[in-house]
Amino acid sequence: MDNFKFHAYTEMLFGKGQISNLPEVLKRHGKNVLLAYGGGSIKKNGIYDNIQELLKDFNIVELSGIEPNPRIETVRRGVELCKEHNVDVILAVGGGSTIDCAKVVGAAYYYDGDAWDIVANPAKIDKVLPIVTILTLAATGSEMNKNAVISKMDTNEKLGTASWNMIPQTSILDPEYLYTLPAIQTAAGCADIMSHIIENYFKKTTDAFVQDKFAEGLLQACIKYCPIALKDPKNYEARANMMWASSMALNGLTGSGKAGAWTCHPIEHELSAYYDITHGVGLAILTPRWMRYILSDATIDKFVDYAINVWDLEPKGDKFALANEAIDATEDFFKACGIPMTLSELGIDKTNFEAMAKSAVEHGALAYAYVALNEEDVYKILEMCL
Amino acid sequence: MDNFKFHAYTEMLFGKGQISNLPEVLKRHGKNVLLAYGGGSIKKNGIYDNIQELLKDFNIVELSGIEPNPRIETVRRGVELCKEHNVDVILAVGGGSTIDCAKVVGAAYYYDGDAWDIVANPAKIDKVLPIVTILTLAATGSEMNKNAVISKMDTNEKLGTASWNMIPQTSILDPEYLYTLPAIQTAAGCADIMSHIIENYFKKTTDAFVQDKFAEGLLQACIKYCPIALKDPKNYEARANMMWASSMALNGLTGSGKAGAWTCHPIEHELSAYYDITHGVGLAILTPRWMRYILSDATIDKFVDYAINVWDLEPKGDKFALANEAIDATEDFFKACGIPMTLSELGIDKTNFEAMAKSAVEHGALAYAYVALNEEDVYKILEMCL
User: Fold this and answer.
1) Which of A296, B66, B202, B342 lies 20 to 30 A from A171 at CA?
2) Is B6 a domain residue?
3) What are the chain A neighbours of B3 within 8 Å (beta carbons)?
């Protein structure tokens, strides 16, 4: 096990009606609140009104219209609002995009320069305005971690940044908020959660048993509960386990002590940067193809673990047959969840594959991934996704 | 899943040589340090000298001789030292006993009255001096949670107290510090970890799938690595996984969202309060007997999960046979780890069973346990342990 620092310090308030704690939580930080949210679904499902009612005694300024792949222009707009209104705390209500945007707004507020600098260079992040979140989508884990991903569409860049100071102070997770999600968002969110776990599971470090057991358990939760949530959107047990799994998948529990870079995420970031597709959909398409591409004598034993401990497949003599069964199961699972499983279905062709492969290798440090990939490898994986 | 708050905010610095961060960590809180430790093993294994060397620029006052079941008199002594020397931060170096003692010293420092009050009534705990720990035993999980257990030998009381403010700010976990542990401490520590997980696993709440998968994975880690650590004390992989499992077992991951009281812990607290035995040994003796006592049609399905997912036993038609196989495996495992598995071996007879049963039911709220127990039940379980 590699040395690591684990510091998932977010106060997680989980369950029905936890929003009632919002005034007490915000009061710790101040009276002036930046309310950050996305396209307005929180106005339809009543959360927006509930917040307004609860925060009568606070001064609220709104940053709305945060994009599914949040853009640097929106971050800059948020920073201006914070400065203009002396904001004390940012309340992000939404999924990972909204929370990621809020984090970088909070960091850029204290940065003397353009906000894109701290995306391109996380080391420039120092102090951050306190972030409080109300989660409305189980997916990115941003509600309990230090990561944020921001897009710059004019240069086709989508980059991840991170800081221990960007971790939300408090996150409110009410599984009932997931009841009204469109099915594709439930499915894409599940794919995102599973990808986080899989990226951490397939690493060169082989002795992090505890982390791997957490990973297997969380994957089993996704496999068990996503189909239930899709069939029965108001199933509390399914929503609660998916929501908790999203936070646990990427708060350090599955990745701490395991070195190396991720693979599918940096490649997917290229897809989103060029085509603005849903992150989880891109990951679902890439993951099984990447698995097939890297399956070899060197990786087979990990795939056998994955087959037996995650997909509950029967051990058999032919390890490769078993591994392929597990990869098929992965692909079939995403398909059954209703995710379009080819890039062609999304209208994406080879046009930008070369540039995307180059950028993914560079930004994703794919030379240090579980199986090192060069541009040609990434190109081939993208071709397999067509 | 029940509503819950999860807040495991300790900064965990895990791995070889992490102690080098100690000056930077302590400096955040101040210059005046109460160094709390137990019987002096840290002087033998070099940690004490290392600390002195690292903290040349700090003012250190020592609280030594903290007992394996830490006593209220020692807490009071610590509070006096803190007041006398204007202590800014408590550095607890040891296992759960030392850390528990440090927590209550830190809380009692700000309490206007006798320290026992805040043990008997956790609601009286408010502010707490910052606690930093260096863990030298994988067992109680105290390094990452809000709990502390303190004994008052004159009245045969051993009570747990808790406060969100008692959670350590930083814990340093170097698996190499476990290399020199006596075998019985490794084994008893493992029994303690497993008991924490088992107490949380066997609860009335049945829909906390994620938590239960974490529990199963952590139990598997204990079962895999404790025998390795006993055979090969300097096996880093085994020590690292055990050490990380100890923190994960009782930081909220396995218990959040699952209601109800624990069982074996309150009964064991009586054994320790009357006979000052090693906590983990008492738990190892009690756990399989308690399991046999509560096995019934109402609990059988959980035992089947336990048999298959934890002990990797083959499913079979006769559920009770399978459950008993798992309970046998539990008992045999502790025995194989070298733990004395009867109270008689510890020189304990029935003399105090009646008083202990009465007190366990009362202090442990055993009416709200997984299977409600009354005094007669506890008496019978204790008898099974003879």
Assistant:
1) B202
2) no
3) 14-18
